[in-house]
# Entry
Amino acid sequence: MLREPTPSQIFVLGLPKSGKTSILSVLFNRVNATDTLYLETTTDITEYEMYAGIKAYDYPSQSELDGGVGRPDPRLYYNSRACIIYVIDSQDDVRHSVDILTEIMETAYRVNTDIRVNVFIHKVDGLSRELQTDIHKEIEHRIIKFVDTEGYNTSMVSFFLTSIYDHTVNEAISKVSQEVLPHRPYLDTILNTLCSRSMLDKVYLFDTMTKTYISTDFLPNDTQTFKFCFDSIVVLEDMLSMWKTLQDSFGDDNGDDDDEESEKYRPEKRSVINLKGTMTIITYQVNRRLTLFCIGRPETMQDSTFIEYNAGKAAKGIRKVIKMDMNTSPYTDATLNSGHINEILREDIMSIVTDSYPPQNDMMDHY
Ligand SMILES: Nc1nc2c(ncn2[C@@H]2O[C@H](COP(=O)(O)OP(=O)(O)OP(=O)(O)O)[C@@H](O)[C@H]2O)c(=O)[nH]1
Ligand SMILES: [Mg+2]
# Structure
């Protein structure tokens, strides 16, 4: 049965100069954080395309009548895969910004009581730790009190301390985009199976272009581990561009690299990063943009053949899921359960092994 396509949309709102365009251009246009100083005021709604068809919209500032904040047509909130990011400049008039946010929430809840609101307490790089905590507490207290008093669901509001000068904004966008990603339950199931069966501490599926992750296993997220992955992408990017340069200089271009769906990603595109003997990250490229980050203790990661075998199987499953058209799937977000997911991914999940010695005759074609 064909359903109406449900777009995954993120509306980025906030007072003028709060940092909306900076966040989006650092992430999606690879603009250097320092170059955002020269950004001009946004005058039109600007669309940014994320991975897997998710779209983020930068709303321009409006007249004083609207409190200076551009707002989407309220009908757009009537979408189960839409959410709001509200950017508050933590170095500016926080109270005024919170007042405008509560007005926006009132409008949004009239249309969709389940819409997720993500509050970015932004530009925290200029504040001491104590001040960050105080401002966070004040903003959270006022907003949660408002939502609670109005009788709405407080668990649908999240708070993030962010800055474009470090990994915090990438981590926040990772969490927000997962909420609207239709493939999420499938990807999380694959990553969780890979993590638990390979005895890893954590697995992320990173979109290396934006340095955000689109899926992870079910273990709680740890900011320190995310930061290690984030830092290592920079190293990895240098290595990959070196690899590409070498490949070009030898004239070895068989087109694999440009094929997003290619099944033939090469095992040698794997890299191992050791962090002070306490943590090892092994990465495997899934396709041109997506890379699996497998993290564990060095002793667990010694048998990398085993992890490589499992990561290869997981990568196959991920490519299959990314190709799936969610609008023709017989399940809606509400009806999908772990039984359906296991049924669809049975072959991919079953082939991820728990034994540390993968079947010998299967070793050569796991990519
Ligand atoms: N210190 C610091 N400055 C930031 C950060 N993010 C953005 N800025 C600065 O904030 C200023 C305004 O940023 P913009 O991205 O243009 O803000 P905007 O919300 O898009 O503004 P309008 O388009 O006018 O609504 C720029 O000078 C940025 O360099 C941050 O994380 N830390
Ligand atoms: Mg702007």
In short: The domain at 183-365 is CATH 3.30.450.190 (Beta-Lactamase). Residues 14, 16-22, 36-37, 39, 41-42, 61, 122-123, 125-126, 163-165 surround guanosine-5'-triphosphate (ligand 1) (CB under 6 Å). The chain has two domains: 9-179, 183-365.
